[in-house]
């Protein structure tokens, strides 16, 4: 289920602002609809490959896009039919309907299907779940190829409600920008392959999909310390911290110390007993500290986290270290990596979709949040968000979170912005998992 990299994500309210700005800058809304309809027509033309197309049009501007696409496909010689749920309700949709010279059928039981169905029923204007009879009729088309215009109809584009669409898409053509529903579960997995038609709006880029990762090669001036010196503090399950330290080296740290463990997976990792932890924290060359992997809540964890915070080094906090650190993080640059259960425990009062909760948590704590899962969200206290859907489901195996924490440590230790470091670490993690694929175990990520 691919999705465009580094693409803007806008809510429906932000879409309307962008639309108005476009109109104010001289591009009419009908021109925007013409571009949207042309993009739909192009995609449908390629998907249909000569087979007949049925376009289902709703009453709003999503339906308007459908009428425009029908007109353009007809002009290209495609075998295209249109069926409408209701007469067009907006001026733009009325004009688009009027310019379509073919018949308009009704969406009723027994409507003959076509090999390609274009779903132009509802987009960002959906306000409530679909009526049962419409949902039932749409389910009748489930064995056809489905192209959804903007979002699969029935989906709340903002991802506030997890309404499932009756007709999941093979391809969804997002118009102007991605919407939260394209990158958040449960709706993201109903969108199929997501394509983006830019249509010329100037989209704010505060929220984006995961950028493609550039290779992070050392340059001639690199040495082990300026590539990033990483300290991973082990708890009772030292294997998890060892995975984090090894991942740190793999992800580009020049030097990794595993404190509180006597064994490490690579000879290149300095494994040393816990007594030197305080001295290591004092080392001026130290770029970042990772704490939490394999370290359940305990007094010792509390002391170790407090010492790391007091040292003022950039921190990666995972698992129980998140709860321990929260009340006293004040200003320390940090990346927190909660999975669903850890997030719910630490931020049980936050409401909204996963993007909003991640953002609110980041703002509250003053640190970068990697809210993990299949639809991982990375959020900064200043509101920046990167959505990492679709990731790699092969990561759903024990120890991969420890690897991610180590990768975060490496990116953070090399200096720069903690949000950029978190994005780079998530990108590295997903890329590595995709290279390995079937049968992945967390150890493969550090040996790859
Ligand atoms: N933004 C842009 O830059 C561009 C946007 N464009 C396109 O416009 C789309 C947004 O269009 P839109 O705002 O007209 O809303 P849309 O999704 O067609 O639906 C609204 C209509 O449906 C109705 N309705 C709602 N829920 C319902 C339900 N459950 N069951 C039944 N009815 C329901 C609602 O009426 P209501 O009953 O709520 O009063 C209203 O009549 C966007 O997704 C994109 O495709 C492009 O053309 C160009 C550039
Ligand atoms: N279904 C999935 N699809 C994609 N990524 C997933 C999926 N399930 C888990 N992940 C990723 O795998 C990692 C698991 O981390 P975590 O739950 O902390 O595991 P552990 O504690 O065993 O290391 C996270 O990076 C998470 O985003
Ligand atoms: K749609």
Automatic annotation (TrEMBL):
<feature type="domain" description="YjeF C-terminal">
    <location>
        <begin position="207"/>
        <end position="448"/>
    </location>
</feature>
<protein>
    <recommendedName>
        <fullName>NAD(P)H-hydrate epimerase</fullName>
        <ecNumber>5.1.99.6</ecNumber>
    </recommendedName>
</protein>
<keyword id="KW-0511">Multifunctional enzyme</keyword>
<comment type="function">
    <text>Bifunctional enzyme that catalyzes the epimerization of the S- and R-forms of NAD(P)HX and the dehydration of the S-form of NAD(P)HX at the expense of ADP, which is converted to AMP. This allows the repair of both epimers of NAD(P)HX, a damaged form of NAD(P)H that is a result of enzymatic or heat-dependent hydration.</text>
</comment>
<comment type="similarity">
    <text>Belongs to the NnrE/AIBP family.</text>
</comment>
<keyword id="KW-0067">ATP-binding</keyword>
<feature type="binding site">
    <location>
        <position position="153"/>
    </location>
    <ligand>
        <name>K(+)</name>
    </ligand>
</feature>
<dbReference type="InterPro" id="IPR030677">
    <property type="entry name" value="Nnr"/>
</dbReference>
<keyword id="KW-0547">Nucleotide-binding</keyword>
<feature type="domain" description="YjeF N-terminal">
    <location>
        <begin position="15"/>
        <end position="207"/>
    </location>
</feature>
<keyword id="KW-0520">NAD</keyword>
<dbReference type="InterPro" id="IPR029056">
    <property type="entry name" value="Ribokinase-like"/>
</dbReference>
<keyword id="KW-0456">Lyase</keyword>
<dbReference type="GO" id="GO:0052855">
    <property type="term" value="F:ADP-dependent NAD(P)H-hydrate dehydratase activity"/>
</dbReference>
<feature type="binding site">
    <location>
        <begin position="123"/>
        <end position="129"/>
    </location>
    <ligand>
        <name>(6S)-NADPHX</name>
    </ligand>
</feature>
<comment type="similarity">
    <text>In the N-terminal section; belongs to the NnrE/AIBP family.</text>
</comment>
<comment type="function">
    <text>Catalyzes the epimerization of the S- and R-forms of NAD(P)HX, a damaged form of NAD(P)H that is a result of enzymatic or heat-dependent hydration. This is a prerequisite for the S-specific NAD(P)H-hydrate dehydratase to allow the repair of both epimers of NAD(P)HX.</text>
</comment>
<keyword id="KW-0479">Metal-binding</keyword>
<feature type="binding site">
    <location>
        <begin position="61"/>
        <end position="65"/>
    </location>
    <ligand>
        <name>(6S)-NADPHX</name>
    </ligand>
</feature>
<keyword id="KW-0413">Isomerase</keyword>
<dbReference type="GO" id="GO:0110051">
    <property type="term" value="P:metabolite repair"/>
</dbReference>
<keyword id="KW-0630">Potassium</keyword>
<dbReference type="GO" id="GO:0046872">
    <property type="term" value="F:metal ion binding"/>
</dbReference>
<dbReference type="GO" id="GO:0052856">
    <property type="term" value="F:NAD(P)HX epimerase activity"/>
</dbReference>
<feature type="binding site">
    <location>
        <position position="150"/>
    </location>
    <ligand>
        <name>(6S)-NADPHX</name>
    </ligand>
</feature>
<feature type="binding site">
    <location>
        <position position="62"/>
    </location>
    <ligand>
        <name>K(+)</name>
    </ligand>
</feature>
<keyword id="KW-0521">NADP</keyword>
<feature type="binding site">
    <location>
        <position position="119"/>
    </location>
    <ligand>
        <name>K(+)</name>
    </ligand>
</feature>
<dbReference type="Pfam" id="PF03853">
    <property type="entry name" value="YjeF_N"/>
</dbReference>
<dbReference type="GO" id="GO:0005524">
    <property type="term" value="F:ATP binding"/>
</dbReference>
<dbReference type="InterPro" id="IPR000631">
    <property type="entry name" value="CARKD"/>
</dbReference>
<dbReference type="Pfam" id="PF01256">
    <property type="entry name" value="Carb_kinase"/>
</dbReference>
<dbReference type="InterPro" id="IPR004443">
    <property type="entry name" value="YjeF_N_dom"/>
</dbReference>
<dbReference type="InterPro" id="IPR036652">
    <property type="entry name" value="YjeF_N_dom_sf"/>
</dbReference>
